[in-house]
Design a protein that fits this description.
By secondary structure, the protein is mainly α. The chain has three helices and no strands. 3% of the residues are buried.
């Protein structure tokens, strides 16, 4: 996911997106353990997306203070 797209979302949307992506990460980890995951780079990309979302959420919350 691109950073510009994430910055346009509200805090509530970001939090729901984070939960959705964490669920996706769980499923990918499970597939990886079973040996069914074809592209292991998906795990890395999902983790980066979660970090981006958390960073933007923190920036927005600090900006309100």
């Amino acid at each position: 996911m691109k950073i510009g797209e994430l910055r346009e979302l509200s805090e509530e949307e970001l939090e729901s997106k984070e939960a959705e992506i964490k669920d996706q990460l769980f499923k990918l980890k499970f597939q990886h353990e079973l040996g069914q995951l074809e592209n292991a780079m998906k795990l890395k990309n999902i983790k980066k997306d979660i970090a981006r979302i958390k960073t933007i959420l923190r920036e927005k919350k600090e900006g309100k203070k």
